[in-house]
Amino acid sequence: MIGSKSTQSTPAQASSWRWWVSGLLLFATMINYMDRQTLANVAVRITNEYGLNNEQYGSLETHFGLAFACGSIGFGFLVDHVSVRWLYPCVLALWSAAGFMTASTTSYDELLLCRTVLGFFEAGHWPCALKTTQRLLSRDERTLGNSVLQSGASIGAIATPLIMQWMLAGHSEPGAWRQPFQVIAGVGAIWIVFWIWMMRRVEIEPEKNAGVGPASKWSPHHLFEAIFSRRFLVLLVVVACINVCWQLVRAWLPKFLQEGRGYTESQALYFNSVYYIATDVGCLTAGAVTLWLARRGWSIHASRCWVFGVCAILTSLTVLVSQLPHGTALLAVLLIVAAGSLGLFPCYYSFMQELSISDMGKVTGLLGAFAWIVSSPLQKLFGRLIDQTKSYDLGIALVGCVPLIGLAALLIGWRPSRQANSEIQNQIQ
Question: May I ask the CATH architecture of the domain 11-207+220-428?
């Protein structure tokens, strides 16, 4: 729990402060993805230096993901009982340390260990961040707030290949990839200072800022009511589907461009940055459009489902990507896929935040763990498929279509609360 001290801030100041904190959460996500994406951006160098095949590289992502699943559960439960004020910076410091130590590895086993530790502690980011946005923002603001939070993934993924290109340009010798891991890991120390400074005097009133006041008749579910509900089952399907699409493309895009379509390392790194600019645009647009529709008479549920559906259709264009050769058309379609792939997440987070208020961290952790348990073994299978077929095309085509399954589950299984929609529409009007 963040805390419950009252403040002397005016409503305007309090509103401004909430969005400044949301911006800080964006930077935490950015750091999270910078530490995560460093490996993918030098995947060809590392696999060559350690003599790894694609299946072994996939195992690195599998161990990262399974550790992330364990961390999701552990930190999900912890965040409901320990102050986010202190838990958050501790988690960030520990995953930064794991990223820093990656630069010192001398064998595949050591690299595997560092990725496992990194995955475990990086998992703490999401329960902490989503607990914060749930407490800070009202129900109609959360999708946009979650878009701001999630867009940090794009910013981190944009910055990482540019940093790598700048640091690695002209350096083809073995081990040249190590210094970027240390530099990027060091960014976390800066964030910790800003977090402690911003949270030094202001604490959040949980129930009030969660948008569920004492007069509200749609009270939050307790944990067991939440996880045995139909909505929870629907979100298990949704989060698994969107995570499979996002994580596999994230991990394999640089290798697909270089080994599958003949781009140079430099070209792949620059395009990676452009790709994640498109994901950021898609993410922020998804949140803004959802809020715009809700404030123009759409039910909040309908606006979220509509945006989610459009994004799922965009990701399915990987079928077209698999048929396109090296060239402008290939890159253009990849950018459309990028916008859709991250636009799915703020909608999902907003649905998830309605399952429970009091046990938000636990629900976040359980759903996140399931997503990683499903997607992580597929990394190794994806690599095996490439080794066997000598092509990335089939795997790329399939992963982009998976969010359509999540859309179907959402449309069939999720039933919005009429009373909740009525209350928020009255507030908007």
Answer: Up-down Bundle (1.20)
